[in-house]
TrEMBL record:
Keyword Ion transport found: no
Alphabetical UniProt keywords: Coiled coil, Cytoplasmic vesicle, Endoplasmic reticulum, Endosome, Lysosome
Cellular location(s): Cytoplasmic vesicle, COPI-coated vesicle; Endoplasmic reticulum-Golgi intermediate compartment; Endosome; Lysosome
UniProt lineage: Eukaryota, Metazoa, Chordata, Craniata, Vertebrata
Self-association state and partner proteins as the record states: Accessory component of the multisubunit proton-transporting vacuolar (V)-ATPase protein pump.
Protein name (record): Vacuolar ATPase assembly protein VMA22
Compositionally skewed regions (Polar residues) per UniProt: 129-138
Amino acid sequence: MAPAVDIGQIEICEELDRVILHLFDALEILQTKREAFNSMVEQGWFSLSKSRYAMGNKSVSTLQYGHQMTPLVRIETSKAEDGQTQFQVITEDAFKGKDENPAFVEEIGPSEQVLRRRKGPGKAEDVAQPQNTASQPAETLGHQDPLNWFGILVPQSLRQAQKTFREGINLAAEIASIQSEIEATRSYYQSLLGKKQKLVAGKKQYSP
C-alpha cells in the first residue's frame, strides 16, 4: 500500500494536468476571439469609411454627434469565489428603471439655444424661448438611435458599421471574461504547484 504522501502527490499531479489542459483551451479560445474582434473592428471602420465616401467626409464626423448622449448598453461585473470576474453587456431595456433617481444628462455645447422662425420680407424674426435641456432627466428625453444624428435615410454601410461595433462590444466583454478566467486559473495552478513542492520536500525530509 502506497504511503499517504504519495497518494496526495498523485492527486495534485492529476489536478495540475487538468488545470493546465483547461488553461491551454482557454488560451486557444482567447486567441480565436481576439482575431475575430480585430477583424470585426476592421470591418466596422471599413463600413464607416464607405459611409463617409457616400455621404461626404463632413457628413459623418464628430460634428454630427447628438447634443445629448445616453448609453444604450452598460457593462456589469460579477466576481466569483475563485477570483474570476465575469463581464456582461446589459442593454437599455434590461437596466431601464433600475436606478431610483433618473440620470441627468450634461449639456454639451452652448447652454442656450435659440430657435428662430423666418417670416416674409420686411418682417422680423420670431425668437422662441431658449431651450435648456441640461437639467432634464434622460428618461424624459428618451434614448435616440445614434444613426438619426446623421440623417433619416442613411446608407446601408453606416447601419452595418453600427451593427458591427455593437457586436464588438459583446465580444470585448467575452474576451475580458476569458482573460479574467485565465488569470484565476494561473493563480490556482501556482497554488497547486506550491502544495506539490511542499509534499516533495516533506517526503525527502522523512526519507531514510
